[in-house]
Amino acid sequence: MEQTLSIIKPDAVEKDQIGNILSRFEKAGLKIVAVKMLHISKAEAESFYEVHRKKPFYKDLTTFLSSGPILVLVLEGKDAIALNRKLMGATDPAKAEAGTIRKDLAESIDRNAVHGSDAPETAKQEIAFFFQPDEIFSKEPPHRKKGCCCCCS
Ligand code: GDP
After folding, report:
1. Which of 42, 46, 47, 100 would you label with 60, given CA atoms 20 to 30 Å apart?
2. Alpha-carbon dihedral angle through residues 6, 129, 137, 89, given to the nearest 10 degrees
3. Is 143 a catalytic residue?
């Protein structure tokens, strides 16, 4: 079992696509174990996307992420990180496979509807960026052995 962070970005919230996207997660077998709607500041967006600070699109990306309400979610399931990224589709909607969220709902690489963590370590950091441990309602039975999985380290 794995957890990943998903963000429904301002463009998809504006277009009333929250329900559409959540139902895709649930139909694919991902459990929604934490959720909140937020309007983050430019400084928070800059901190979240720190890894891209030197990229030419950093300013536009962080302005966009802080431009309106977003939904932040923790998704849980088997191979949740890869499964969520498969459901999202390629970063550029023009290159995304048919039936993916970005192909169906996004208009451009700058306004591409969703974010999803790309690896276990980033998932851990990104989940902690938005959620306290007691805000996450895991469906997994409590683990007993230290180091038995990614969340029991
Ligand atoms: P993701 O994991 O598919 O969201 O992609 P990344 O983590 O690499 O990039 C974060 C976000 O930055 C993407 O979702 C895009 O909105 C934006 N982005 C990434 N690469 C480019 C690019 O080459 N040009 C522009 N304009 N935006 C980009």
Report:
1. 100
2. 10
3. no
**What is the domain count for the chain?**
1
The pLDDT tens digits for 67-111 are 999 999 999 999 999 999 999 999 999 999 999 999 999 999 999
Distances (CA, A) of 128 to 62, 93, 131, 153: 19, 28, 5, 15
Predicted confidence band of residue 142 (pLDDT cuts 50, 70, 90):
low
Give yes or no for a contact between 21 and 9, defined as CB atoms under 8 angstroms apart.
no
β 70-77/2-8 pair status? antiparallel
Tokens 């409590």: give the residue: 142
Residue 78 is part of a domain; what is its CATH number? 3.30.70.141
Domain that holds residue 106: 2-152
Question: What is the chain's Cα-based Rg?
Answer: 15
Find the catalytic residue in 39, 52, 115, 143.
Answer: 115
d(CA 107, ligand 1 centre) in Å: 13
Q: What is the pLDDT at residue 114? A: 98
